[in-house]
Structures are given as C-alpha cells and as structure tokens.
Amino acid sequence: MEIKNQYVLITGATSGIGYELAKLFAQNGYHLIIVSRSHEQLLEKANEFKQYGIKVITLSKNLFKEDEVYSIYSELKLNNISPEILVNDAGQGVYGKFEDTDIYRELDIVNLNIGAVLILTKLFLKDRISKGSGRILNLASIASKTPGSWHSVYHGTKAFILSWSEAIREELTNTGITVTALLPGPTDTDFFNKAHMTRSKILKDKDNLGSPAEVAQDGYNALMSGEDKVISGLKNKLTVAMSNLASDSMAAHRMGKMQEPQDV
Ligand SMILES: NC(=O)c1ccc[n+]([C@@H]2O[C@H](COP(=O)([O-])OP(=O)(O)OC[C@H]3O[C@@H](n4cnc5c(N)ncnc54)[C@H](OP(=O)(O)O)[C@@H]3O)[C@@H](O)[C@H]2O)c1
Questions:
Q1: Whose C-alpha in 23, 42, 139, 198 is 20 to 30 A from the C-alpha of 50?
Q2: What pLDDT shows up at residue 263?
Q3: Ligand 1 residue neighbourhood (C-beta within 6 Å)
Q4: Cβ count within 10 A of residue 184
C-alpha cells in the first residue's frame, strides 16, 4: 500500500461508523487526525491504525463545546497541518417524547450534530479553497428524510445536515472541493445505548441493524467518487423511496409506530 502525504480529519473515529471509516482511510494510506472525548479510546484506536504504517494524531475534544471545536483547527495550524479530507461523523440522539426529554441534552445534541459540523466545515473551507482541493463527508441518515416521532430532535438535526450539504455542494462547484452526505439506516453501533433508545421497537429485531463496516465502505466509495449522497443498503433505499411517496404527517405517524417503546 502506498502511503499518501494527506491527512483526514475525522470526528467520532473511536466507535461504530467513524471507527470503520478511519480504518478504511488508514488501510488506503491516509494519515489520520482522530477526534472523540475519550483519551483512552483515542490512544487504543491510534495504536491499531498505526499498524497500517500511517501517522495518527489524537485530539480529545468534547464537541458539545464550541471552544473545543474551534481548538481543533488552531492546534492543526500550529503544526502546519491542512487536512485534505474532513469527515463529520460524531453525532448523538435523544430518545423520548419531546415533552419529556431534557432540553439541555437536546441543545448539546444540536451543538454536536449541527454546530460542530458547521464550525469544522467553515474552517476546512477557509483553509482549502485557496488550495483548490478537498473532500467533505457528512454523516446524515435516512432519518434526514422523515420527521422522527420519539426521536424528533435527532431527525431534525439530520434533515438539516442533508439539506445544508446539498446547498454548499452546489456553491462549491468548480472549487475542487466536493461535499458528500452518507445516509445509513439503523446500524449496529453504540448509538442506541448513548441515546437511551434500547427499548424502542426499532431495536426489537437486532438482525435488522446494518453493519457499520458496510456503511463505512459505501460512504468511502461515494466520497472518493465525489457523489452528492449515498443511502447505504437496498432496504434503506426502499425505506426512503416509500417515505418520499408519503405525506409528512403519514411519515411521522409511521416513524412514531416504529420508534415507540416496545411496551406501548
Ligand atoms: N447507528 C445508527 O443507526 C446511525 C444511523 C444513521 C446515522 N448515524 C450517524 O452516524 C454517526 C456515527 O454514529 P455511530 O452509530 O457510529 O455512533 P457511536 O458508535 O456511538 O460512535 C459515536 C462516535 O462519536 C464520538 N462522540 C460522541 N459524542 C461526542 C462528543 N460530544 N464530542 C466528541 N466526540 C463525540 C464517540 O466517542 P466518545 O463517546 O468517546 O466521545 C464515538 O467515537 C452519527 O452522526 C450518527 O448520527 C448512525
């Protein structure tokens, strides 16, 4: 494998889809800048990725906090590093009816799923536009396509990410910079534990969950070929096609039935 003299900045690289994406970049000879909260997890994963002969920089940051997001680029600048690829993977959900959920947790989720993505992308573009090259992969979701009762704030953040990704992609035509959105369906990661969502009907049959490695491969391929978006997996493509035919209120009703607790 040829080692490329290029860095990939990837948030959420210690678990699930982000971890599988980071592994793919390492296997393809890219140096990595990996970001998450757990210092121990970052060191463990960095040691694993270094086996592919690449360099790995670990940045322990809580992306709920705006100042910690900004500090990523200031630390990279101090070391004269300009990542060629940005992967905005880190994201979380909050499960429950909006009337019951914790507003402070929801605002943290908005900061992580939207705020951190906007800040990192803005800083990436300011750095890369003059260089005339760059690739951005944003983790959207099939949740971007439907109002998600019982998971409403999360679905809203992912709808934002898909809409905004398509819009800036258009603005960036002829700059040498591409923007790709990855839309996984329910995938077998720690996401549902973090969202306190394990009692949801959507998890009744765990065999329905997708593989994070397959999702990552679909995202990697779409990013490298400069596609605007990819829905990972045939079943998820069909789900999106069906929800495109339904009215928003029908889609919200259907999602409510799918995502409500198993004991309802
Ligand atoms: N799993 C699914 O069904 C699914 C479906 C569609 C889209 N997605 C999207 O895919 C992305 C990755 O999710 P996943 O399923 O792979 O989840 P995961 O296994 O829980 O991984 C999340 C990653 O993000 C990091 N992270 C979480 N909160 C953070 C914070 N405040 N600051 C910095 N890093 C943080 C985690 O590390 P630390 O906890 O150590 O910080 C971890 O590395 C998310 O954007 C999610 O919305 C997931």
A1: 139
A2: 82
A3: 11-12, 14-18, 36-38, 41, 61-64, 89-92, 112, 139, 141, 184, 186-187, 189-191, 194
A4: 27
| Residue type at position 124 | F
Hey, what domains does the chain have and what are their CATH numbers? 7-259 (3.40.50.720)
User: Contact 259/200 with Cβ under 8 angstroms?
Assistant: yes
Q: What is the distance between the alpha carbons of residues 95 and 104, in angstroms, rounded to a whole number?
A: 14
Q: In angstroms, what CA-CA distances link 136 with 164, 186, 213, 245?
A: 13, 22, 19, 30
Residue whose structure tokens are 């306190």 = 196
pTM of the model: 0.98
- Residue ranges in the chain whose pLDDT is less than 70: none
83 and 8 Cβ atoms separated by less than 8 Å:
yes
Q: How many CB atoms within 10 Å of residue 204?
A: 10
